[in-house]
From TrEMBL, chains A, B:
<dbReference type="Pfam" id="PF01638">
    <property type="entry name" value="HxlR"/>
</dbReference>
<keyword id="KW-0804">Transcription</keyword>
<keyword id="KW-0805">Transcription regulation</keyword>
<dbReference type="InterPro" id="IPR036390">
    <property type="entry name" value="WH_DNA-bd_sf"/>
</dbReference>
<keyword id="KW-0238">DNA-binding</keyword>
<dbReference type="InterPro" id="IPR002577">
    <property type="entry name" value="HTH_HxlR"/>
</dbReference>
<feature type="domain" description="HTH hxlR-type">
    <location>
        <begin position="20"/>
        <end position="119"/>
    </location>
</feature>
<dbReference type="InterPro" id="IPR036388">
    <property type="entry name" value="WH-like_DNA-bd_sf"/>
</dbReference>
<protein>
    <submittedName>
        <fullName>Winged helix-turn-helix transcriptional regulator</fullName>
    </submittedName>
</protein>
Length: 133, 133
DNA sequence: CAGCATCCCTCGCGATACTG
DNA sequence: CAGTATCGCGAGGGATGCTG
């Protein structure tokens, strides 16, 4: 899942079921590229669409647009048109999106530390039930 | 994704690409039911498999087993056999799993606060581009 | 009680292409 | 430059059933 969570959560909310706090938050940045988008916008400021494409070369044009649209719908980022010879779309974090940054940052830190541990123990790619307890 | 992240990350690590800290962490609890499992084990202690089934009535037997297996493989939870008339499997968080709790907890808090905002603004199920900036 | 295999359907997401 | 539509594959995950 990536993005299944988002659909499920929206469904539950529609049914008046608000008992899904963690999943709700998870749904904000689940879905491919979303964490990265939030992270970059949060730490480096506004980006144009075409800049994001360069930043995430593996993300297809379509998916990038789709994810940005969802992030806007969720209120995490804002979208502004900038005129010129060619129209450019500027994306940046909203205050709501910024409030999510600490969580993303701690995910970054946790991941970095854990990856170093795995690396040092010569467990290059086994995330497994090694003796890291 | 639910769980696509996990596969992708493992693949990247295999290729020696360690530049995926956030995604790596995300992969730990992405995938249906995982956040809940971690949360429950973290805050309420050890659970037997059949207790988890009761706790998460919507999770299928198969998926629950599968997710638990992955969590064990990732080193977040431990699995212990307990003999008796019927064998029971006891699951609990490892120290590594516990180190993830703060993140899950902040996700819980963020979600709770955001859901309250939405509720108060009479935006029962629209997660949308409302004027909550 | 718990794990794993099989069948099957849904949906995320990539590739490609058209529009303003 | 940016958004959206169409097609297609592959993976997540539900239902069911067998095994120890």
């Amino acid at each position: 899942m990536t993005d299944t969570v988002r659909k499920l959560v929206r469904q539950r909310l529609k049914n008046g079921d608000y008992t899904c706090r963690k999943e709700f938050t998870l749904a904000m940045f689940s879905g491919k590229w979303k964490v990265n988008i939030i992270y970059h916008l949060g730490h480096e400021g506004t980006y144009y669409f075409y800049q994001l494409q360069t930043l995430l070369p593996n993300a297809s044009h379509k998916e990038l647009a789709k994810k940005l649209k969802e992030l806007v719908a969720d209120g995490l980022i804002s979208r502004e048109e900038e005129d010129g010879p060619r129209i450019k779309m500027a994306y940046s974090l909203t205050p709501l999106g910024e409030s999510l940054l600490p969580i993303i940052d701690s995910m970054y830190d946790w991941g970095e530390q854990r990856l170093q541990e795995l690396h040092m123990n010569n467990v290059p790619f086994n995330l497994g039930p090694v003796k890291n307890d």
